[in-house]
Design a protein that fits this description.
The protein is an all-alpha fold. It contains seven helices and no strands. Helix 2 crosses helix 3 (50-67) and helix 4 runs antiparallel to helix 5.
C-alpha cells in the first residue's frame, strides 16, 4: 500500500478496519503487519524488557482487535497507541509490584536473621562471663568447644592431648555445669 498523499493512510486504515469488522482475516493480517513493529517499539519504550515487550505487544494486538467495535474513526494510530501505552504501564506496574513484594518478603527474613545473630551474640557473651566461674581445667575445654566452635580434633591438637581425652574433659565439664548452673541462669 503506497502512500501518495497526506491522509491516505488514515483512509486505508478505515477501509481495513471496516473489512476486519466484517470478518476479513486478510485485512486483519494487513493491519497487524502494518502496526506490529510500531506497537512493539511503543511498548518496549515503557517496559524496557525484550521478552515482556513481545508478550505485551501480542496482548495489545488482541485488545485492539477485541475493541475495534468501539473505534470511532478519530485517528487509528493515536487510538492504538493509547491502548499500547496503557497496557505497557500496567505490565510495568505489575512487574514493579512483584519486585517490591519479593523484597518485602525477604526483609522480615533479614530482620529475623539479624535478630537471631544479636541474640546469639548476647548469649555467647553471657556464657563467656559465666565461664569465669568454671574451674580452670574445664574452662579451657568449654571455651574452645562452645565459644570458638572448634572440633574435638582441633582441640586435641592444640592442647597436645588425645581426642578421647577431649571427650572425657567435655563430659566432666558438662556434668559440672549441670550441677552448678540452672537453666534459668541464662535468661
Amino acid at each position: 500500500m503506497k502512500k501518495d498523499r497526506k491522509g491516505e493512510s488514515g483512509i486505508q486504515d478505515d477501509v481495513l478496519i471496516d473489512k476486519v469488522q466484517n470478518g476479513d482475516e486478510h485485512a486483519l493480517r494487513m493491519l497487524i503487519e502494518k502496526y506490529r513493529d510500531y506497537l512493539y517499539k511503543t511498548v518496549y519504550s515503557i517496559i524496557r524488557h525484550e521478552k515482556d515487550a513481545e508478550d505485551a505487544t501480542q496482548e495489545v494486538l488482541v485488545r485492539i482487535f477485541l475493541s475495534l467495535s468501539q473505534y470511532q474513526s478519530q485517528g487509528f494510530k493515536a487510538w492504538i497507541t493509547r491502548i499500547a501505552v496503557n497496557y505497557a504501564i500496567d505490565v510495568k506496574r505489575k512487574r514493579e509490584r512483584k519486585r517490591e513484594e519479593a523484597l518485602e518478603a525477604t526483609e522480615p527474613e533479614a530482620a529475623e536473621n539479624v535478630e537471631q545473630l544479636v541474640i546469639k551474640k548476647a548469649e555467647k557473651e553471657q556464657v563467656r562471663r559465666r565461664l569465669e566461674e568454671i574451674p580452670p581445667s574445664y574452662r579451657e575445654i568449654i571455651y574452645a568447644y562452645y565459644i570458638e566452635e572448634k572440633s574435638y580434633q582441633q582441640i586435641a591438637k592444640e592442647q597436645n592431648i588425645a581426642v578421647k581425652t577431649v571427650e572425657t574433659k567435655l563430659y566432666r565439664a558438662r556434668n559440672w555445669l549441670r550441677k552448678h548452673w540452672k537453666e534459668g541462669d541464662f535468661q
